[in-house]
Amino acid sequence: MYAALDIEMTASGRTLLAGASAAIAPGRITVLIGPNGAGKSTLLKVTAGELRPQRGHVRLEGSDIATLPPARLALRRAVVPQHAQVAFPFTVAEVVAIGTPSGRFDPAPVARALAEVELSGFEHRAYEKLSGGERQRVQLARALVQLDPGRPDSHHGAGYLLLDEPTASLDLAQQILVVRLMRKLAATRGIGILAVLHDLNLAAMAADQIVALKEGRDVASGTPREIITDDVLAALYGVAARVGWAPGTPFLLPQSLDR
Protein backbone atom coordinates (compact mmCIF):
# COMPACT_ATOMS: atom_id res chain seq x y z
CA MET A 1 0.00 0.00 0.00
CA TYR A 2 1.11 3.53 -0.83
CA ALA A 3 -0.73 6.33 0.94
CA ALA A 4 -0.65 10.06 1.55
CA LEU A 5 -2.30 10.78 4.90
CA ASP A 6 -3.72 14.04 6.27
CA ILE A 7 -1.55 16.20 4.02
CA GLU A 8 -1.39 19.94 4.62
CA MET A 9 0.41 22.33 2.28
CA THR A 10 0.51 26.11 2.03
CA ALA A 11 2.35 28.42 -0.35
CA SER A 12 2.51 32.22 -0.30
CA GLY A 13 -0.18 32.29 2.37
CA ARG A 14 -2.56 30.17 0.29
CA THR A 15 -3.82 26.78 1.43
CA LEU A 16 -3.11 24.13 -1.21
CA LEU A 17 -4.02 21.04 0.80
CA ALA A 18 -5.95 20.89 4.07
CA GLY A 19 -5.85 17.37 5.50
CA ALA A 20 -6.16 15.57 2.15
CA SER A 21 -5.53 11.84 1.84
CA ALA A 22 -5.29 9.30 -0.97
CA ALA A 23 -4.24 5.66 -1.09
CA ILE A 24 -3.03 3.36 -3.86
CA ALA A 25 -3.34 -0.41 -3.64
CA PRO A 26 -1.35 -2.85 -5.81
CA GLY A 27 -3.25 -3.73 -8.97
CA ARG A 28 -5.79 -0.95 -8.43
CA ILE A 29 -6.32 2.52 -9.93
CA THR A 30 -7.08 5.56 -7.79
CA VAL A 31 -8.13 8.70 -9.68
CA LEU A 32 -8.10 12.23 -8.27
CA ILE A 33 -10.85 14.53 -9.58
CA GLY A 34 -12.03 18.02 -8.70
CA PRO A 35 -12.22 21.59 -10.01
CA ASN A 36 -9.18 23.63 -11.01
CA GLY A 37 -7.16 24.61 -7.96
CA ALA A 38 -8.57 21.79 -5.83
CA GLY A 39 -5.08 20.45 -5.05
CA LYS A 40 -5.00 17.37 -7.28
CA SER A 41 -1.56 17.85 -8.81
CA THR A 42 -0.17 19.08 -5.49
CA LEU A 43 -1.37 15.93 -3.73
CA LEU A 44 0.14 13.77 -6.46
CA LYS A 45 3.48 15.60 -6.17
CA VAL A 46 3.46 15.17 -2.39
CA THR A 47 2.69 11.47 -2.83
CA ALA A 48 5.55 11.17 -5.31
CA GLY A 49 7.98 12.81 -2.88
CA GLU A 50 8.52 15.81 -5.13
CA LEU A 51 7.05 18.12 -2.48
CA ARG A 52 7.37 17.71 1.27
CA PRO A 53 4.19 18.50 3.22
CA GLN A 54 4.07 20.86 6.17
CA ARG A 55 1.93 18.32 7.98
CA GLY A 56 0.96 14.70 7.43
CA HIS A 57 3.06 11.99 5.91
CA VAL A 58 3.38 9.64 2.94
CA ARG A 59 3.97 5.95 3.59
CA LEU A 60 5.17 3.43 1.04
CA GLU A 61 4.72 -0.16 2.18
CA GLY A 62 5.15 0.82 5.80
CA SER A 63 8.03 3.30 5.40
CA ASP A 64 7.78 7.08 5.46
CA ILE A 65 9.11 8.13 2.03
CA ALA A 66 10.99 11.01 3.67
CA THR A 67 13.29 8.37 5.17
CA LEU A 68 13.89 6.44 1.94
CA PRO A 69 17.03 7.04 -0.14
CA PRO A 70 16.09 8.48 -3.55
CA ALA A 71 17.46 5.45 -5.40
CA ARG A 72 15.34 3.06 -3.36
CA LEU A 73 12.23 5.21 -3.80
CA ALA A 74 12.83 5.32 -7.56
CA LEU A 75 12.77 1.52 -7.67
CA ARG A 76 9.31 1.42 -6.09
CA ARG A 77 7.47 4.28 -7.78
CA ALA A 78 7.64 6.02 -11.13
CA VAL A 79 6.11 9.37 -12.10
CA VAL A 80 4.85 10.71 -15.43
CA PRO A 81 4.44 14.50 -15.08
CA GLN A 82 1.87 16.55 -16.94
CA HIS A 83 4.57 18.12 -19.11
CA ALA A 84 7.89 16.39 -19.80
CA GLN A 85 10.52 18.42 -21.65
CA VAL A 86 13.34 16.77 -23.60
CA ALA A 87 16.07 19.30 -24.37
CA PHE A 88 18.22 17.21 -26.69
CA PRO A 89 17.53 15.36 -29.97
CA PHE A 90 17.10 11.94 -28.36
CA THR A 91 15.67 8.88 -30.01
CA VAL A 92 12.66 7.16 -28.51
CA ALA A 93 14.87 4.38 -27.14
CA GLU A 94 17.16 6.90 -25.46
CA VAL A 95 14.23 8.66 -23.77
CA VAL A 96 12.75 5.38 -22.56
CA ALA A 97 16.15 4.19 -21.30
CA ILE A 98 16.34 7.20 -18.95
CA GLY A 99 14.12 5.15 -16.64
CA THR A 100 16.65 2.30 -16.36
CA PRO A 101 17.54 2.01 -12.65
CA SER A 102 21.07 0.74 -13.38
CA GLY A 103 21.86 3.75 -15.56
CA ARG A 104 23.08 1.41 -18.30
CA PHE A 105 21.38 1.12 -21.65
CA ASP A 106 19.67 -2.27 -21.92
CA PRO A 107 17.57 -2.82 -25.05
CA ALA A 108 15.48 -5.63 -23.52
CA PRO A 109 13.44 -3.62 -20.97
CA VAL A 110 13.17 -0.74 -23.46
CA ALA A 111 11.63 -3.07 -26.03
CA ARG A 112 9.30 -4.60 -23.42
CA ALA A 113 8.06 -1.18 -22.30
CA LEU A 114 7.49 0.06 -25.85
CA ALA A 115 5.52 -3.09 -26.63
CA GLU A 116 3.32 -2.47 -23.58
CA VAL A 117 2.46 1.05 -24.80
CA GLU A 118 1.95 -0.21 -28.37
CA LEU A 119 5.01 1.53 -29.84
CA SER A 120 7.11 -1.46 -30.87
CA GLY A 121 9.50 -0.50 -33.65
CA PHE A 122 9.73 3.16 -32.59
CA GLU A 123 13.15 2.77 -30.93
CA HIS A 124 15.13 4.72 -33.53
CA ARG A 125 12.58 7.45 -34.26
CA ALA A 126 13.30 11.02 -33.20
CA TYR A 127 11.32 11.83 -30.06
CA GLU A 128 10.85 15.46 -31.12
CA LYS A 129 9.05 14.38 -34.30
CA LEU A 130 6.40 12.28 -32.54
CA SER A 131 2.80 13.35 -32.05
CA GLY A 132 1.63 14.46 -28.62
CA GLY A 133 -0.04 11.13 -27.96
CA GLU A 134 3.04 9.19 -29.00
CA ARG A 135 5.26 11.31 -26.76
CA GLN A 136 2.95 10.68 -23.83
CA ARG A 137 3.19 6.95 -24.40
CA VAL A 138 6.99 7.18 -24.65
CA GLN A 139 7.03 8.88 -21.25
CA LEU A 140 4.81 6.13 -19.92
CA ALA A 141 7.24 3.57 -21.35
CA ARG A 142 10.09 5.36 -19.57
CA ALA A 143 8.22 4.95 -16.28
CA LEU A 144 7.57 1.28 -17.03
CA VAL A 145 11.29 0.67 -17.57
CA GLN A 146 11.79 2.10 -14.11
CA LEU A 147 9.31 -0.51 -12.82
CA ASP A 148 10.50 -3.32 -15.11
CA PRO A 149 10.01 -6.86 -13.72
CA GLY A 150 13.73 -7.49 -14.18
CA ARG A 151 14.80 -4.60 -11.95
CA PRO A 152 16.88 -5.39 -8.83
CA ASP A 153 14.00 -5.38 -6.32
CA SER A 154 11.28 -6.91 -8.50
CA HIS A 155 10.68 -9.56 -5.82
CA HIS A 156 9.14 -6.77 -3.70
CA GLY A 157 6.23 -6.32 -6.10
CA ALA A 158 5.27 -4.50 -9.27
CA GLY A 159 5.56 -0.98 -7.86
CA TYR A 160 3.45 2.14 -8.26
CA LEU A 161 2.84 4.54 -11.13
CA LEU A 162 1.80 8.18 -10.63
CA LEU A 163 0.30 10.03 -13.60
CA ASP A 164 -0.47 13.76 -13.67
CA GLU A 165 -3.18 14.37 -16.28
CA PRO A 166 -1.94 11.66 -18.67
CA THR A 167 -4.75 12.35 -21.18
CA ALA A 168 -4.39 16.15 -21.33
CA SER A 169 -4.27 17.52 -24.91
CA LEU A 170 -4.78 14.07 -26.44
CA ASP A 171 -7.47 13.26 -28.99
CA LEU A 172 -10.27 10.85 -28.13
CA ALA A 173 -8.56 7.76 -29.55
CA GLN A 174 -5.32 8.50 -27.66
CA GLN A 175 -7.23 9.18 -24.43
CA ILE A 176 -8.97 5.82 -24.64
CA LEU A 177 -5.67 4.12 -25.44
CA VAL A 178 -4.02 5.61 -22.35
CA VAL A 179 -6.94 4.55 -20.12
CA ARG A 180 -6.83 1.05 -21.60
CA LEU A 181 -3.10 0.87 -20.89
CA MET A 182 -3.71 1.95 -17.29
CA ARG A 183 -6.29 -0.82 -16.83
CA LYS A 184 -3.99 -3.37 -18.46
CA LEU A 185 -0.99 -2.45 -16.28
CA ALA A 186 -3.05 -2.73 -13.13
CA ALA A 187 -4.70 -6.01 -14.13
CA THR A 188 -1.76 -7.86 -15.69
CA ARG A 189 1.26 -6.37 -13.92
CA GLY A 190 -0.27 -5.62 -10.54
CA ILE A 191 0.95 -2.01 -10.69
CA GLY A 192 -0.83 0.39 -8.35
CA ILE A 193 -1.75 3.60 -10.16
CA LEU A 194 -2.61 7.11 -8.95
CA ALA A 195 -3.80 9.46 -11.71
CA VAL A 196 -5.13 12.99 -11.97
CA LEU A 197 -7.92 13.19 -14.54
CA HIS A 198 -10.16 16.12 -15.45
CA ASP A 199 -12.47 14.20 -17.78
CA LEU A 200 -15.06 12.56 -15.53
CA ASN A 201 -16.06 9.99 -18.14
CA LEU A 202 -12.44 8.86 -18.44
CA ALA A 203 -12.18 8.83 -14.65
CA ALA A 204 -15.23 6.56 -14.43
CA MET A 205 -13.73 4.23 -17.07
CA ALA A 206 -10.31 4.06 -15.45
CA ALA A 207 -10.84 4.10 -11.71
CA ASP A 208 -11.37 1.46 -9.10
CA GLN A 209 -11.44 4.26 -6.53
CA ILE A 210 -12.09 7.98 -7.00
CA VAL A 211 -10.99 10.67 -4.55
CA ALA A 212 -12.81 13.99 -5.06
CA LEU A 213 -10.92 17.10 -3.95
CA LYS A 214 -12.27 20.60 -3.37
CA GLU A 215 -10.35 23.52 -1.86
CA GLY A 216 -7.55 21.19 -0.77
CA ARG A 217 -9.78 18.70 1.02
CA ASP A 218 -10.87 15.22 0.02
CA VAL A 219 -14.63 15.71 0.21
CA ALA A 220 -15.66 12.29 -1.12
CA SER A 221 -14.05 8.93 -1.80
CA GLY A 222 -15.48 5.75 -3.27
CA THR A 223 -16.11 3.74 -6.39
CA PRO A 224 -17.13 5.48 -9.65
CA ARG A 225 -20.72 4.38 -8.96
CA GLU A 226 -20.60 6.15 -5.58
CA ILE A 227 -18.82 9.35 -6.71
CA ILE A 228 -20.08 10.04 -10.24
CA THR A 229 -23.57 11.06 -9.14
CA ASP A 230 -25.71 14.16 -9.66
CA ASP A 231 -25.45 15.22 -6.01
CA VAL A 232 -21.69 14.70 -5.57
CA LEU A 233 -20.82 16.46 -8.82
CA ALA A 234 -23.14 19.37 -8.02
CA ALA A 235 -21.43 19.84 -4.66
CA LEU A 236 -17.97 19.40 -6.14
CA TYR A 237 -18.22 21.65 -9.20
CA GLY A 238 -21.16 23.87 -8.32
CA VAL A 239 -23.12 22.98 -11.46
CA ALA A 240 -26.21 20.91 -12.16
CA ALA A 241 -25.19 17.51 -13.47
CA ARG A 242 -27.12 14.68 -15.06
CA VAL A 243 -25.43 11.30 -14.84
CA GLY A 244 -26.45 8.44 -17.10
CA TRP A 245 -25.41 4.83 -17.21
CA ALA A 246 -23.65 2.67 -19.78
CA PRO A 247 -23.34 -1.02 -18.85
CA GLY A 248 -21.77 -0.91 -15.40
CA THR A 249 -20.27 2.58 -15.82
CA PRO A 250 -21.68 6.05 -15.05
CA PHE A 251 -21.24 8.76 -17.67
CA LEU A 252 -21.83 12.50 -17.69
CA LEU A 253 -23.40 14.54 -20.48
CA PRO A 254 -22.77 18.32 -20.27
CA GLN A 255 -25.92 20.26 -19.44
CA SER A 256 -26.91 23.71 -20.61
CA LEU A 257 -26.28 26.37 -17.96
CA ASP A 258 -29.87 27.64 -18.22
CA ARG A 259 -31.47 24.29 -17.37
UniProtKB/TrEMBL annotation:
Molecular functions per Gene Ontology: ATP binding; ATP hydrolysis activity
PROSITE patterns per the UniProt record, alphabetical: ABC_TRANSPORTER_1, ABC_TRANSPORTER_2
Residue ranges of every copy of the ABC transporter domain listed in the record: 2-240
InterPro entries reported for this sequence: AAA+_ATPase, ABC_transporter-like_ATP-bd, ABC_transporter-like_CS, P-loop_NTPase
Keyword field: ATP-binding, Nucleotide-binding, Translocase, Transport
Coiled coil: none
UniProt keyword Ribonucleoprotein present: no
Recorded family membership: Belongs to the ABC transporter superfamily.
Free-text function comment from the UniProt entry: Part of the ABC transporter complex HmuTUV involved in hemin import. Responsible for energy coupling to the transport system.
Name by which UniProt lists this protein: Heme ABC transporter ATP-binding protein
Species this protein is from: Ancylobacter mangrovi
